[in-house]
Amino acid sequence: MPKMKTKSSAKKRFRVRPGGTVKRAQAYKRHILTKKTTKNKRQLRGMVNVHETNMGHIAQMMPYAGL
After folding, report:
1. Does pTM surpass 0.85?
2. Where is the composition biased (Basic residues) (predicted)?
3. Which residues contact 29 (CB under 8 A, 6 or more apart)?
């Protein structure tokens, strides 16, 4: 049986924390930033946890992440 492959897009977007949670970057911070307010862009900084309803999809995309 061949090894399962990790989705390359998922390994670039998600990091697994030691506690088993997964962190991700905020959306809406890539382009068309001139029309967004400074407050909005500031609040989109940093990382947040992936919601628990999406953890099954993350586990399928990253089979060796230990989720």
Report:
1. no
2. 1-16
3. 41, 44, 45
Q: Is residue 2's pLDDT more than 90?
A: yes
Structure tokens at 35: 């029309």
Q: Which domains does the chain have, with CATH numbers?
A: 8-61 (4.10.410.60)
Question: How do residues 19-62 score in pLDDT, each as one tens digit?
Answer: 999 999 999 999 999 999 999 999 999 999 999 999 999 999 99
- Cα angle vertex 35, ends 12, 33, to 5°? 25
